[in-house]
C-alpha cells in the first residue's frame, strides 16, 4: 500500500466504531483481508435503521472501499466475499426501511417527469435553508458545512456509477450534468474544490473524510442512500430519480446558503460554491427530469416506479436530516456527535463592499424531449 502524495483527496482515516458491528469491521480492516465471522450481522434488527449509528457507519465503512478507500487498509478488502455478504445484510435492512418510509409513489399518466414535479411540490420538510439564511449563527453554519462535507468533497461521484449502466438519451443527459459537476475538466471549478474553499474560509478541516467521525447516523444515511443506489445496477432508476430530485430542489436553498454566509460577513470565495449552484442547478433541473429520467423510462418503461422511489427516498431522508439539525439547535445542543473546533479568531473575513447577492437565477426554457 502506498501513501498518497496529497492527503486532501483521500483516503480517509478510519473512524471510531459506534457499536459492535462497526467495531468488528474497523478491527478487521486493520489487518490483511480475511474471512469475517459467518454470523456477524445476522441479527440486524435496529429499531430505526436510518438513525442507527452502528448500522450506518458499518455501511459507510463498506461503501468507502469503492470510493477513495481507507488510509492503511489493504485495497483487496473491496471485494472480500464475507465483507460483501455483511454489507448485503446491512443493505437489506436499510433498503427495507427506505421503502417503509416512502412506500411506492404512483407514476402519473403524464409521465415520470410530472411525477418528479409532484413529489418535489409535495415536499414539506422543515426549511433548514431559511434558518441558515436568516438566523443561524456562525457555529451552526459551520456545523452544517461539516455535515455536508461528507458528500460535497466527493460531489457527483455516487451518481457517476450510473454512467456505464446507461445508454442513449439518459446517458447523454447525465454526462451533461456531471460535466458541470466536475468543472468541465478544470480542477479549480470542480464543485468539490469549490466546497473545499468554503471549508477553508470557515476555518474547518478541508481533508477528505475529515468530519466522518462527528457526522451522525442520519448524515451518513444521506450518503449511504446514494451509494446503495449507485452500486446496484438494479437500482439505476432510483439513482437517477435521486439525482433529479436533488437538482430540482437545490437552486433556492443554495441561494439561501450563500446569502446566509454573506449575512455572517463572508466573502465571495466562501460563497462561490453555493452561488455556482444557483444558476447551474436551475438548468440541471430541466435536464435531469426531462432528458435524463424521461429518457431512461422511454428506453426502459419498467424503471418508472424506481425513478420515483429514488426521488422520494432522497427527499424523505433529507427531511430527516434537516429536522435533526433544527431540533438539535432548538434544544441548544450540537447537531454533530461532537462540536467542531471553535472558529479561528480571524473569522469571518472582511467582505469587499462590492460583493452582493447573486442575481436571480433565470428559469431556463423548457427543453424539448429527446427522441
Main attributes of the structure:
mainly alpha, 14 helices
Number of helices: 14
Would you tell me the overall average pLDDT? 91
Give the N-to-C terminal Cα separation.
48 Å
Sequence stretches where pLDDT stays below 50 over 5 or more residues: 350-371
Percent range of helical residues: 55-70%
H/E element sequence? HHHHHHHHHHHHHH
Major sheet summary line: none
The radius of gyration is: 20 Å
Descriptive report:
This protein has 371 residues and is mainly alpha-helical. The chain is 55% helix and 0% strand. It has 14 helices and no strands. The protein starts with 19 loop residues before the first helix and ends in a 41-residue tail after the last helix.
What is the element layout, followed by pairings?
Blueprint: H1 20-29, H2 53-64, H3 81-102, H4 112-122, H5 128-134, H6 138-152, H7 157-160, H8 168-181, H9 191-201, H10 217-230, H11 236-248, H12 251-263, H13 268-299, H14 304-330
Q: What's the short version?
A:
This protein is an all-alpha fold and 371 residues long. It has helices at residues 20-29, 53-64, 81-102, 112-122, 128-134, 138-152, 157-160, 168-181, 191-201, 217-230, 236-248, 251-263, 268-299, 304-330.
